[in-house]
Write a structure and sequence with these properties.
The chain has eight helices and twelve strands. It is α/β, with parallel strands linked by helices. It has a six-stranded mixed beta sheet with strand order 2-1-5-10-8-9. The chain has a two-stranded antiparallel ribbon with strand order 3-4. Strands 6-7 form a two-stranded antiparallel ribbon. The longest helix is centred in the N-terminal third of the chain and has 15 residues. It has a domain of 172 residues: Ribosomal Protein L4, Chain: A. Strand 3 and strand 4 form a beta hairpin.
Length: 289
């Protein structure tokens, strides 16, 4: 597949061949599994205190003639807390055992539970390639974005040097993303308790800007609602297919495409570099992401 490189002013430039990562078959089930694996790592562990509801004394004798026994009272023999006493007359409450009024939970959530879902390295890379392939097919992208006529969108390397949010917005408008910017500029107030928990507004998912390295564009574009910026070496399935749905609108820089091609990122034959280890003759092989 071939694509034309656009200038910052929206004019067409030279034509290049896309890397082989965009030729993968689309596997929605594999993309979904990879996205859920990424989201599982973002979950925070939670759970009840191990001794919650068990930190007060609650005993009831089951022997017939023992002091503070339950015989002759017409009550079940469950552990009870003494709330008041008058001689040998007690006021009991069974607020200890599960299933009783005010009792502890039988099986509360455990903080030591492992929430992370594992995925094989080759499956993860294949899911990323599959999401990349869906991002260059208009039938997948136009279902969730206001897309221009030509896809994929590749801008010259000057795009990474933009330093102002206004300049980034103008550049995206010149390549045909005016309707998309209008769509993602609308944000709504969330319904429910989330408004009180730091997630008051719901923002629509917009285009993903992929750059080759750390640059000024990362700071200039982060103030635009719904737009996400990522380096090409830190892509994952969630960024490429948010909500487990393949077909996100991606704006590439020319340097990001070249880095994807030269380093063979997200393929099974990733380029390896040798790292010298002191005191050993054999070099240590380190894989890139």
């Amino acid at each position: 597949m071939k694509a034309k490189i656009l200038t910052v002013d929206g004019k067409e430039g030279k034509e290049i061949e896309l890397p082989k990562q965009f030729e993968e078959d689309i596997h929605p089930n594999l993309i979904k599994r990879a996205v859920l694996a990424v989201e599982s790592k973002e979950r925070q562990s939670y759970g009840a205190m191990p001794k919650a509801g068990q930190r007060s004394s609650a005993v009831l004798s089951r022997r017939r003639r023992k002091y503070r026994g339950s015989y002759g009272h017409g009550i079940s023999r469950v552990p009870r807390k003494i709330m008041w006493r008058r001689g040998r007359h007690f006021g009991w409450e069974a607020a200890f055992a599960p299933g009783t009024k005010g009792g502890r939970r039988a099986h509360p959530p455990k903080a030591e539970k492992i929430l992370e879902e594992k995925i094989n390295k080759k499956e993860k890379r294949k899911a990323i390639r599959s999401a990349l392939a869906a991002s260059v097919l208009k039938k997948h992208v136009e279902d969730r974005h206001e897309t221009p006529e030509n896809i994929p969108l590749i801008l010259e390397s000057k795009f990474e040097d933009l330093e102002k949010t206004k300049s980034v917005k103008e550049a995206l408008g010149k390549i045909g993303l005016n309707k998309e910017l209008e769509r993602i500029s609308v944000r709504k107030v969330r319904a429910g308790k989330g408004t009180r928990r730091g997630r008051k507004y719901k923002t629509k998912c917009g285009p993903l800007l992929v750059v080759s390295k750390e640059c000024s564009l990362e700071k200039a574009g982060r103030n635009l609602h719904g737009i996400e910026i990522s380096q090409v070496t830190s892509l994952n399935a969630k960024k490429l297919a948010p909500g487990c749905v393949p077909g996100r609108l991606i704006v590439w820089s020319e340097g990001a495409i070249e880095k994807l091609r030269e380093d063979r990122l997200y393929t099974n034959n990733i380029m390896k570099k040798e790292v010298k280890v002191e005191g050993k003759n054999k070099p240590k092989v380190e894989e890139k992401k």
